[in-house]
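Proteins fold reproducibly. Look at a sample protein:
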Amino acid sequence: MKATCIRIRTTLIFILSVLVAMTSTGFAANETGKIISPDQLGAEAGKDYHGVGLSVTPTTNGADLRCDFQKLRGHATAEGLWLESTPPEVQDFPVRIIAHGFGRESLRLLPATGQIECYPFLARFVRPGVIEEYSVNVDGVRQDFLVNEKPSGSGPLRVELSVDGAKAATASSGVTLVLKGSERKLAYDRLNVTDANGRTLTARIEVGSERRLEVVVDDATAAYPVRIDPTTAMPTGSVFQR
C-alpha cells in the first residue's frame, strides 16, 4: 500500500494584547487599512519579526522553543514537547499533548520515546509511523502530527492524544483542558479538517478520559494527505477562567 501523509496541526495560543484593537465586528485593520480576521492576527503581527523572542534552539538533549509574545517556553525532548509558562507566578505548567496511537477499529500504539531533530525554526520528534513537528509564531507554539501511512481497515480515521499536566473535559464547542495547579481552563476546539483538494471533512474531538483525547475523521472519500487542525487557546474574552 502506498504510504500517505496525514497532518494534524495544533497551536497553543494565549490571547494577544493586539486583540484589544479589534473592532466590535471581530476584525482589525493593519497599518495599510486592510481588514484582517482574528485567525490572521498572529501571522500579520509576526511576518516582519526577526529576533530571539521567537526561536527554536538546539540543546544537548533536544531543542528549546521560545515565544515571548505569549510568555511560553517549550522543551522538545525524547518524550515529546513539554510546554510551560514563563511568568514566575504561574504554577500550572508543564503541559504535554502527545500522539499515543492511530488507526481505525484498533489503534497502532506509538513508542513512548523518539528522536529529536532540530532545524532552523523547526524541531521534529520522530517515531515510527508518526513525526511531530514543533515551531513558534506570535500566536504561540505550533504542533503538527505527520502520520506517514494510511491505516488499513474500515471505519473513520482515529488519532488518540495523551494529555499530561491537565484534565480533559467535554465542552459545548469541543474540549476544555483544566490545568493542574491553578485549575485555569484552556479551550481545545476550532477543529478544521481538510483533504489534499482543500475539501472540508467531517470530524470531531472526543474525550476518552481525563487524559485521553481522540480526533475522529470521516476520510472515506478523502484525497490524501489530510490535514487535521484543532487549536488550544485561552477562552475568548477572558484572561483566564477558574
About this structure: The first strand starts at residue 6 and ends at 13. The longest helix spans residues 41-46. Confidence is low (pLDDT under 50) at residues 13-48, 236-242. Helices lie at 41-46.
